[in-house]
User: Fold these one by one.
Assistant:
Number 1:
Amino acid sequence: MKVLYDTILKATYTGRPNRFVVTLDLNGERVLAHLPNPGRMWELLFTGVTMYIVPHDKPDAKTKYRVVGIERDGVVIMLDTNYSNDVAQHLIENKLISGWEEWRIVRREYTVKLHGTSSRFDLLLTNDKGDEFLLEVKSCTLFSKTGAMFPDAITERGRKHLLHLKELQNEGYHTGVLFLVQWDRAQWFLPDYHTDLEFAKTFKEVAPSLDWKAVAVAWDETFTMPTVTRECSYPSRILDTEAHDSGVYVMVMHLDHDLDLEIGSKGMMHFKAGYYMYVGSAKANLTKRIERHKRKRKKMHWHLDYFRGHCEMIAGLPIRTSWADAECALADAVRGVAEWDVPKFGCSDCNCNSHLFGMSENPIHNKEFMDVVELYRMNMLDEMVE
């Protein structure tokens, strides 16, 4: 078995100054490490988790180390996307992917031009009949207890890639996608319609035409080439009911000073400095509702409109769901992890005490809060999968 790295060190995650750099505690020393995976990875990056790093192999690199993996619940997860094609080639050449035993690798980074549009695909495969198989490889690091989703950030490039694969399929090529799910507990896979609804819609449209698979792989601390745990199921019927621009959301904001503010007919209300989580819902146009909340200049309508102009917007987290009672249930769940709430804020049309909650640290980096998001986005789907 091929070992990908000569020297692997364990360190403790402490922060992420930007998309490509993390700060770590390595045996009591603060070090910087390059993060080759630019995904959000909000569900993985929590203070104190174990990361796997290697000495940087480039002498002129800005960081001394490079991240290759992380742990979640004691499970080793590969983060180094530089090796995705190596992993795919290993699995295909060793006939570890059911249904693809006939294929073998011909070339990497293969460019195809069709009707004036060029696309580069990760692998070109062939078989004994001389057929050509254009394969795109994606590393999936967004998962729940038993599910996996891709992507974890909006990817217009990825959506166009799917459409080009479908077009090439119509022109006679054999085309497909291999999702490497870096979580050996994953049993099902879906496009992440919460984060990127347009990608999910496109995936739903083209998936029946493509030869694609999502396989859960298992790693260990040696980062020897992984084994395939299973091919994940594709419960496409969930997309029929859930992948629509409606549901609930959490707006995450930061207020850097104590504030007394008049909130419409509610009068003066007090807000102490900290991070805030506002829970709302939209029966239609969920995307536009979130974008409206992000803007500071607008006509005052909701309670949040008055507060928004005084704080920094951190993130808007959509949760697309057909569950009618999701808003108040989500508010109750967020209340359970928050440190305080603002009484009677944002709940005029329900029996909740509040829909605005606060905590002293950024909720995006708080595991309890992100567990709530994971529950409503993914874990609740388990019952629909079965």
Number 2:
Amino acid sequence: MLDTPIHPRDLPLFSEDLDRLEKVLDTVCKDRSMNPRSPEAERLGALIIQLYRQGVKDDAKLLALARAYF
């Protein structure tokens, strides 16, 4: 048995999760005329994943936070 708690940030992301996060990333990239394969987009994608794992599950909130970051 595990003696340490499992944190949400340690849980795997499933394809449904990744599809949602990709839509948010694609929207911000399009808004900012950013190449989705650029280093900036990679950093933005990492931020979106981090926010999601911290509990921001609403797409509109994720989008607003991602837009505010870039």
Number 3:
Amino acid sequence: MVNRRSGDILTITGQQLRAARAILRWTAQDVADAARVGVATVRRAEMQEGALGVTAANEAAIQRALEAAGIQFIPQNGGGAGVRTRAADPD
């Protein structure tokens, strides 16, 4: 995926996937359903300590699904990669 601010490629990690899932209180099956990938793919991806280790298409699908649910991925920036919920748009 591309970091929309800098244009840099953003690769999410297994730790970020696990954290995002915990924030949303989603099961691996919930992520799989939202991303339209197999649950085994999600489970395998979140076991990784670094990059997800899945195809680029599956990584993009997982990231899009979690972002659509309100997750924002934070790239490694000296303080470590992370996740947070996206701020609500002001009305």
